[in-house]
Design a protein that fits this description.
This protein is mostly helical and 251 residues long. It contains 8 helices and 4 strands. The strands form 2 sheets. Strands 1-4 form a two-stranded antiparallel ribbon. Strands 2-3 form a two-stranded antiparallel ribbon. The chain starts with a helix and ends in a 5-residue tail after the last helix.
């Protein structure tokens, strides 16, 4: 069971992050649309707020494709509405390759966003102490550290960058198109390894490393989900207030 701890925490943190990210984006767009009555202005304002995250998302696709020697085409961080009503924040044209390289290119924003958010949390804001106090149950010291965070140099800049990057690091549906094939392939290899007797070695050597890595990533996802949750509530209340005052609703 210990070997599954990292995967469990990874899943528990990823699911609320995806939900809260989508909810916050939808509520923000609704607020902007009701307040401005302009779809074009709403798209532009939303893009301006999340531009650093969009740039890292698309540039990570581009750089990963270059590293893996996959041909690339046009690159853009300008928003455009899609036929199904969704908003595409940016895009980079990349030739289709094998499932491994396609999966890595699709996962590039998640990898880059996780590393950037981890850098901000660990080095820029030095939140390792906060994590240790929380893990040890020292709640008074934890809240004291939370109150002191705004005194860190460039706190608001780092907090903003970590928020917009983590908010845009979730791969889109098109980014995930090769993941199912890769998961099936890895699953088959895993079954073959068990059949040839490599199971005990994998559980004792590989599984703990994977579990520790996923646990670390889960901390980043949890931090991002908490920030999205704290912002989602006031934005939702503003949405409801504007709806009541103007009589306009966005569905």
């Amino acid at each position: 069971m210990n070997q599954l701890t990292g995967f469990i925490w990874f899943s528990l943190m990823l699911v609320p992050l995806i939900f809260l990210q989508r909810f916050l984006h939808r509520e923000l767009q609704a607020v902007f649309l009701i307040a401005t009555r302009s779809g074009r202005f709403t798209i532009g304002l939303f893009q301006l707020i999340f531009l650093p995250g969009v740039f890292l998302h698309e540039s990570s696709h581009y750089l990963m494709a270059k590293i893996l020697r996959v041909p690339t085409g046009r690159f853009s961080v300008l928003p455009r509405p899609l036929p199904d009503g969704r908003l595409q924040m940016g895009y980079v044209e990349i030739a289709q390759s094998d499932i491994v390289r396609d999966s890595l290119i699709g996962a590039a924003p998640l990898i880059a966003g996780t590393f950037f958010t981890a850098y901000v949390a660990v080095y820029a804001l030095d939140m390792r102490v906060l994590w240790d106090t929380l893990r040890n149950g020292q709640m008074s010291m934890f809240w004291m550290g939370i109150n002191l965070l705004p005194t860190v140099n460039n706190f608001y800049l780092w907090a903003y960058l970590a928020f917009v990057v983590s908010s845009m690091m979730i791969p889109s549906q098109s980014d995930r198109h090769a993941w199912l094939e890769l998961v099936v392939s890895v699953g088959i290899l895993f079954v073959v390894a068990l059949l040839v007797g490599a199971g005990p070695w994998m559980l004792s050597t590989v599984a703990p490393l994977v579990s520790d890595f996923l646990s670390s990533v889960a901390v980043i996802f949890g931090l991002s989900a908490a920030v999205h949750g704290m912002l989602a509530l006031p934005v939702m209340l503003i949405h409801k207030l504007l709806t009541r005052l103007t009589g306009r609703e966005v569905r």
